[in-house]
Write a structure and sequence with these properties.
Distance between the termini: 62 Å
Strand order of the largest sheet: 4-7-8-12-11
Shape: elongated
Structural class: alpha/beta
Length: 515
């Protein structure tokens, strides 16, 4: 027994034995025979072993029902040996007429679903008393073994998973917000879920291989699947319609929303504020599922309650005010991801090169550091970014191959830096993420003007000047006075007052050709 397969999970496994009769299967005889007949009709001629594999129905149930369907004239055995698993069945004319009416009402072909009541009870057992968690230290170490630095962020993520409460992550682009949130599911225990459930003769799909990763050990009943805690990522493409469960008439199933797919795991709304629909409407749609841990799906007009026991995570590089108090109460933990240290970005660059299995000269690490070191230390003074580290490593590989070199050297690195558009833009003092934004001008009253000015230069502030006992600086509109004061306070600088004195539109050079 371990964290990912404890005593509760073992008891559930023992309960999920493959049913050997219709009473235990808890599906109607007409539903099962209709499902088998649709499979035979779609294949023309099909082995019973294929029907068993497709439906997950036990041999005893298949043999009994195929025998009755044969006697009724809906199908007929056409070949096979002594073993039932080798027998092939074909559809009859009577069977085709029968299946036409069945398929019109429900075209679903696939594994037999689990009855709704069984799904609800098994899920309730797993989710009750799930929190607080006792996460073993070795699980924490393994989860974050690829995460460089940001210990304060790791602590918040761990605490979010311990109590099952939402988390809000914000900060500049390229600081690793999406990446670090994506590690959270590894801190959570796994879950057993049905692939499909049946309600009123209709099928609701729960299992989605795009978001659900199967564990090594699986229940005896193939209709159920043990998965790692899911990580469901949605971004700027998210709309209100995608938060609903919609019926697919071609597949004959209700395809569940991200809210339901994230049950037992993490639902990340990435790039909050950049969705096509108003983000306030999206956040309002989430409140009830976040609060009640349930959502309602309408099947033929009848409300069906499904579990939505996920931990909500929100990330943005916009201002924290993008979420109001009602929404922040559902994500009470927060992380402000600052721009990383130069040494951390260099370490990520090195790890990416090694992940790419690239050989490199040790000198390139020192050169890479110079890109982000302050100008007063002989560097270029660019803003450190984990995203840069990953991208430059990949571009280095491409440049090395194109140059027909066996090793990444200084020449390769310099060429890679020149080809990275965000590096080039920063060298031109242009922040592409803020082209359409405004610039805010702040007056900061402080006793130590020189130290304040130096700190603001390191922060990346523009047009810094002094006025009496104040420093005037330009920053992007996404930078709030609270963030600015917090940064300076961390630098040991006391700010008596911060005053917004102006806002202006930014301008961008139209071409990089002359650079």
């Amino acid at each position: 027994m371990n964290y990912y397969h404890d005593e509760k999970m073992e008891k559930i496994f023992n309960a999920l034995k493959q049913p050997k009769n219709l009473d235990d299967l808890q599906l109607s005889e007409s539903f099962i025979r209709g499902l088998i007949l649709k499979i035979i009709s779609s294949y023309g001629t099909v082995k019973t072993s294929t029907i068993n594999e497709l439906t997950g129905i036990h041999w005893d149930i298949l043999e009994e029902n195929l025998s009755k369907m044969e006697k009724s004239g809906f199908c007929a055995p056409v070949s096979g040996g002594f073993l039932f698993s080798s027998v092939e069945y074909a559809i009859t004319r009577k069977g085709r007429e029968k299946v036409r009416g069945i398929a019109e009402d429900n075209p679903y072909i696939g594994i037999a679903p689990v009855p709704y009541e069984e799904y609800y009870q098994i899920m309730k057992i797993q989710l009750q008393h799930r929190y607080p968690l006792q996460i073993p230290p070795e699980v924490v170490d393994e989860t974050f073994h690829q995460v460089v630095g940001v210990d304060y962020a790791k602590e918040a993520l761990i605490e979010s998973c311990i109590i099952g409460k939402g988390i809000f992550v914000y900060g500049p682009p390229g600081t690793g917000k999406t990446f670090i949130i994506s590690t959270m599911p590894d801190l959570l225990p796994p879950l057993v879920m049905p692939k499909y459930i049946e309600f009123g003769g209709k099928i609701i799909q729960l299992y989605d291989p795009d978001f659900h990763k199967m564990c090594e050990e699986q229940p005896d009943d193939p209709r159920w699947v043990k998965i790692h805690a899911p990580f469901v990522l949605t971004g700027a493409e998210l709309s209100l319609n995608k938060l609903e469960t919609n019926y697919d008439p071609n597949k004959g199933v209700y395809e569940t929303s991200p809210l339901i797919k994230a049950n037992g795991g993490i639902l990340l709304i990435d790039d909050l504020g950049r969705q096509r629909d108003d983000h306030e409407l999206i956040l309002n749609r989430l409140i009830v599922p976040m609060e009640n841990k349930k959502d309602v799906v309408y099947v033929r007009g009848i409300p069906v309650i499904l579990h939505t026991h996920f931990i909500p995570a929100f990330s943005t590089n916009l201002d924290i005010s993008i979420m109001d108090e009602a929404h922040l109460r559902r994500a009470p933990l927060h992380i402000f991801l600052k721009n990383p240290e130069v040494e951390e970005v260099t370490e990520v660059f090195r790890r990416n090169l090694e992940d790419l299995r690239e050989t490199y000269q040790p000198e390139i690490l020192g050169r890479f550091m110079k890109v982000y070191q302050p100008k007063n230390n002989g560097g270029e003074g660019l803003q450190p970014s984990f995203a840069h580290a990953r991208d430059v490593a990949q571009i280095c590989q491409s440049v090395r191959i194109n140059m027909k070199k066996d090793i990444i050297d200084i020449e390769v690195l310099e060429a890679a830096l020149d080809k990275h558009v965000l590096v080039v833009l920063q060298r031109l003092n242009i922040d592409i993420a803020q082209i359409s934004h405004k610039t805010r001008s702040f007056r900061l009253k402080t006793d130590d003007l020189e130290k304040t000015q130096e700190a603001l230069e390191l922060y990346g502030a523009q047009t810094i000047c002094r006025e009496n006992s104040s420093v005037i600086t330009d920053v992007d509109e996404s930078t709030s006075p609270v963030e600015l004061a917090g940064y300076l306070n961390n630098q040991g600088i006391k700010v008596e007052k911060i005053e917004l004195i102006a806002e202006s539109e930014k301008e961008l050079r139209r071409t990089l050709l002359n650079w």
